[in-house]
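User: Study the chain.
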Amino acid sequence: MKLNLCCGIRLLDGFLNVDKVDIGRYFPDAVKNKDFMVCDLNTKPWLNETADVIVMRDGLEHLASGSFVENMEEVWRILVPDGEFACQVPDATTPQAFVDPTHTTFFTHLSMDYFDPDKLLCQMLPHYSSCRFHIVKAEPTKDMGLHFILRKIPHV
């Protein structure tokens, strides 16, 4: 299964597109011929290791339930071993991170280092979380955001 979480009107072919808001009510053409589901992610609707890919563009910073670490642990839980998580978030060093009053978490280029055992922050603070990812990509975007691709590392 491929999940496009917090999709808004950016629905992807071949994915289960999920948003808390019924996008079809406001933008019926956006959901036409797409797999779309209205769902509050706080309900934790997926079983362990059921998603091969999770995409979350401009969504992770909005999740109100749990901390950033808890939300990453939830992503880790539902990904299959070696599954990929691609996310885009506003860069905390730019105004875009603070303009939206619904943002609950702020990110820098080092934010995901806490989950990668090859990175110093994870090595220094391994007790922050037991979930582990390999950072495949961490780069700025043209619109002052950050784009990450992480690959799940299964527990040994």
